[in-house]
Amino acid sequence: MTGGIPGGASGSSPLKGTLYGIGVGPGDPELLTLKAVRILREVPVIAVPTSYSDAGSMALDVIAPILDERRRAHRSPEIVSLLFPMTRDETVLAEARKTNGEILLGALSRGDVAFVAIGDILFYSTFGNLLTGLFSLRSPLPVEVVPGVTSYSAAAGRLVEPLVQGSERLAILPAVYDPSEIESVLDRFEVVVLMKINKVFGPVRDLLEKKNLLDRTAFVSMVGRPEERVSRTLDELAPDSVPYMSLLVVRKNGWLK
Ligand SMILES: C[S@@+](CC[C@H](N)C(=O)[O-])C[C@H]1O[C@@H](n2cnc3c(N)ncnc32)[C@H](O)[C@@H]1O
Are residues 129 and 66 in the same domain? Predict the structure, then answer.
């Protein structure tokens, strides 16, 4: 894996390739789309985000069967790692966007590039951030998006429960807000999916208890991976054991089973 490609392109050199933004699904390689597999079998360069706990390496794990196949055929792609720093410092973020954009333009000046990320590529994904940087350096740019199965769809599937039915309203949000804001969402929607719960699991659990929603809440982590955990109780979960790849589904109208 490299952190960049030597000889990056300037903003004006001609591009030979297309940037494919590929959502690889939540974890199970069998949830890769046929289109994703076709492109990932061919592209000379595959770029992965490194930003938060193992998300990039998880995307690589999902596509490992394709990488193995290509290795056996002596057609391994170059793997480029793009750093997305975990900070709100706009100067640092702008610098990272520029660096990542330049690395990708360098690769695109030579051929196609696939950027892979977990779940769907345009749903709380680093790809949006990447496009912001790229479009500020170069526009128009040849980009194609291959949507992926989202983590919350896969979670509902593992629970074998409808996410929403009939006139039920669904809210999906990262649990990074103040608990009072999450509470107002819980008051207004019949179904709430809370993403990115690992750092706030304790306070969120307390809020759900206060709202008498603990028996209406399911926990799903690492869905589709060997470490997958699906639980309809939060009782046995120690806050520090909740991985980043975890979410909660709250169904105020209750479960089918
Ligand atoms: C940056 S967002 C990525 C969302 C992703 N693009 C999607 O379509 O689901 C990361 C959050 O997605 C959720 N997530 C992603 N993959 C997951 C998985 N395999 N199991 C459970 N939650 C997952 C978690 O809430 C995690 O904190």
Answer: yes
Q: Is residue 9 part of a domain?
A: no
Residues 257, 254: Cα–Cα separation, whole Å: 9
Strand partners, 197: none
Residues 193 and 155 in one domain: yes
- Is the pTM higher than 0.90? yes
Assess whether 192 and 247 both reside in one domain: yes
Note whether 80 and 102 are same-domain residues.
Answer: yes
Q: Could you read off the pLDDT of 95-137 as tens digits, one per residue?
A: 999 999 999 999 999 999 999 999 999 999 999 999 999 999 9
The preferred substitution site among 24, 32, 124 for testing ligand 1, maximizing ligand atoms within 8 Å of CB, is 124
Calpha distance 40→75 (Å, rounded) = 11
Q: Is 1 helix (H, G, I), strand (E, B) or coil?
A: coil
Burial class for 146, CB neighbours closer than 10 Å (0-12, 13-18, 19+): buried
Query: Is the Cα torsion angle 160, 33, 146, 47 positive or negative in sign?
Result: positive
Q: Which residue range forms the structural domain that includes residue 47? A: 19-146
The finding on whether 21 has its CB within 6 A of some atom of ligand 1 is no
Same-domain status, 117 and 166:
no
Centre of ligand 1 from the C-alpha of residue 195, in Å: 7
Partnered with residue 45 across adjacent β-strands are 78, 113
254 alpha-carbon distance from chain centroid = 27
Number of domains composing the chain: 2
Backbone angles phi, psi at 36, to 5 degrees: -60, -45
Q: How far is the CA of 71 from the centre of ligand 1 (A)?
A: 28
